[in-house]
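Reopening this ticket.

The earlier resolution said the output was attached, but the attachment link was broken on my side. Pasting everything inline this time so it's all in one place.
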Amino acid sequence: MIFCSVAAEYSITDDAALESVFDSLISPFIRISMLESDIKQQESTAAPAYADMLHILKEVKKQYNLDLLSNEKLIFDLMTHLKTALIRIQNGIHINNPLLEHIRMNYTFLFDVAYFISNMYSKQQSLQFTNIEISYLVVYLIGPLKSLREDLYESFALDILLYVNEGYAILKNLKEMIADSLHDISFKIQPVVTYAELENKTAAMQYDLLITTSPNISFPSMETISISSALSSLDLANISKVTLPLFEIKQAAYFNRVFSYFFNDAIMDFHNTSKTVSGFFHQSCDKLKELHYAHDNFYSQLMEREELLSTSFETGIALPHSTENNARKSGILFAKFDTPIQWQRNKIKCAFLIVTAKEDIHLLNIIYKVIVDISSSHQHINQLYKCQSSDAVKDLIFTHFKKILK
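Inline output:
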C-alpha cells in the first residue's frame, strides 16, 4: 500500500526506480534514528556538551526562575533532543508536531523557555531551530513547570501555628491528621510545644491561624481554634469551616496585589483605534517607553516573537510579548479594539500586551494560564469585550485565577 501511494505521487511505474525513490525518502529517517540511539549511549556527565547544557540551564534559572538543574535525566534528554534536532536541520529533514497548537494555547511561557534554550545552543552551532523543533522541547519542560505552580501556592499559603503542650508525640500526630484533612487550600503548619516558643513565633512573624489544645489562649492578631487532643470529627469540621474562608481572603488579597502591580489604569485602553498589528505595537511601545516600562527595542522584540509563533487566538484575543524578559518594570497593557483587527489568521477583539522584568518572571506563567483560560471560549471573550473598567477586567480575571489554581 505504501509503495503504491509513493508510486502514484511520483508517477513511477518502474520497480527499480520506485525502490530507489522509496529508499531516498525513508533512509534519512532510519539514519537519524540510529544516530539518536548512538547519541544516547555516548552522553555522560564527562562530555563537553554536558557542561554546555549546565551553563544554558543556569541561565534559564536566572532568566525564568525555572530550576531544571536537579533533574539529570531531563538534562540528558535535552542534550539528545538538541543534537538530534541539529542533525535533522543539517540534513534538511522536516518534522511535524501534532501538539504545536496545544502548546501555543497552553504553554506559551514554556515555548519562550524552549526558544531561549535552543537559541543559546544553536548559536554555538551557527544553525537556527524551527518553531516545530522548539515546540518539541516544550514537552520535556511540562513536568518541571509544576514547581513554579507550587511556588505560587506558597505565596498565599495559610500560615498556621499548632500549639500542643501535651508532648511531641501528640503534637506530631495532630499535625499529620490536620494536614491530611485540609483540601483545596495551600497551607504551612508550624508546630510548637511550649508557651515560650509560641510567644517567640508570634513575635517573629504574622500567622493567620492558631490551633491549640490549650483552652483560654488567644492572640488578637489571628483567629484561634481550640481542639481536643483526640481531634474529633467535630474538630476537623470546625478547622475546615474556618480555614477555607481565611484562605480565600488571603488568596484574593494576593491576587489584588498582583493585579494592581501589573495592571495600571494608564495602560488600559477600552477604545483602541488601531487598524493593524504593527500599528498597535508602535502605539503601545511609544506609550510603554514614555511610562518607563519598556526599552527602545521592544517593538522589534514583539515582532520577532510574532514571526516565531503567533500569539493570537481564534476566539479573538492576543497575548503579545517578547522572549526577552528585560523590561524596566512589569506591566500588562490591555487594549479593546473599536474594530477587530486582522492578526495573522485571526480577527482580534482584545489584546493583553505583556511587559516583563526579570524579577517578575515567576508570575508570568500563571498570568498566561489565566488569560489563556479566558481565551478558550467565545463566551469568555464576549464577557471581556463588554468590560468598561479595570475593576470589571479584574473581576473577570480573578474568577479564572481561582479556577486555574484548583
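Reporter confirms the inline version is readable. The chain has three domains: 43-144, 156-257, 263-405. The mean pLDDT is 82.
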